[in-house]
Every structure is written in structure tokens, then in C-alpha cells.
Amino acid sequence: MEKTSRRGFMGKAFGAVAAVGGVASLVAMKQTWDPLPSVKAAGFTEVDLSTVEANCLVVEKWRGKPIFILKKTAEMVAKQDEAQTARDVIVDGTHYMIAIGLCTHLGCIPAYADKKEIFQCACHGGEFDSSGLDIKAPPPSPLVIPPFNVKGQTVMLGEEGPEYKKMKEAGILA
Ligand code: FES
Questions:
Q1: Quick one: which atom of ligand 1 is closest to the CA of 106?
Q2: What are the tens digits of pLDDT across the range 112-157?
Q3: 21 and 65 part of one domain
Q4: For residues 103 and 7, what is the distance between their CA atoms, to the nearest angstrom?
Q5: pTM over 0.85
Q6: Residue 174 within any structural domain of the chain
Q7: Domain count, the chain
Q8: Which domain holds residue 25?
Q9: Are residues 159 and 114 part of one domain?
Q10: Atom from ligand 1 closest to the CA of residue 103
Q11: Which atom of ligand 1 is nearest to 110's Cα?
């Protein structure tokens, strides 16, 4: 009799331990399934535009790619045509070029010549203007604009915000 109730107690105790272990395993498994916070954040890059100097190229990294951010001076904006301005990201009246810094010819990283206000690709001599439009062959197309979302003075790369969607609808990203 005593043996039976002792066995019953042991059984319950073992069951309780097993249940706790089971829950712990489930929690551990759930943590394994969920992406780590850093991985979640890895798809996005936050850029603080308030620290960017005009006509001074900033290169950020997003999903392993270089991202060019160029704040334009009022003089640069004044001499732009519509096609150039259509590609600008305008934050509080200030124009920025945001583009993936890979030449659309064969993928070299162009350099910014601040005096000429153009991007020059050393690989085969291709050039892009300060809005990322291809102005000298062989690049077949403009620099690619990555998905972005403007939140105050911050740009979130990897997020499709309203300005990005507007560019998409206007066929600028095609
Ligand atoms: S890779 Fe840039 S011009 Fe060829």
C-alpha cells in the first residue's frame, strides 16, 4: 500500500519534472524558430541624415551592398532637370540621392568626384550624375534605388515607404 502510494508520488514527481522539461524544450525550440533580434534588424539599415554633409558622399552598408547617400547643395538642385529631381529623396526641403553603389554595367563600385559632381566607374569608364542617372556608357541604366522609408531625419533602408512607392508607380525604379 505504502509502496503503491510512494510509486504514485514518484510518478507524479517524474511527470512534473518531465512537463517542466517539456515546456523548457518548447521554449528553447520556439527561440530557435524565431529569428534573433539582430537577424531581424539585419534586413534594415537606419541612416541618420542630420549628420550628412552636403556634396560629401556617405556610404552605408545594406544587405551586403554599398549604399550611396549624397546630400545635395542648393546650387546642385538649382541646375537639375526634372528627371534628376524625380529620383531625389526630399527631406525637409533638402534633396538626397540614395542609390545602391554598384555600377549597372558589371557591378564595380563607382567613386564620387565632388568637384565634377558625378560618379565615375574606374572599371570601364562609365559615369553617373549626382542623381545616379547614367551619363556615359557602358552602364546601361541608372544606379538602382533601394527600398527606403523616411521617418523624420532618419532613412530606413529595406523598408518600402510612401516616397519609394511613389517612385515605383512613376516608373523611376523600372
Ligand atoms: S563596371 Fe562600371 S563601367 Fe563597367
A1: 1
A2: 999 999 999 999 999 999 999 999 999 999 999 999 999 999 999 9
A3: no
A4: 75
A5: no
A6: no
A7: 2
A8: 2-34
A9: yes
A10: 2
A11: 2
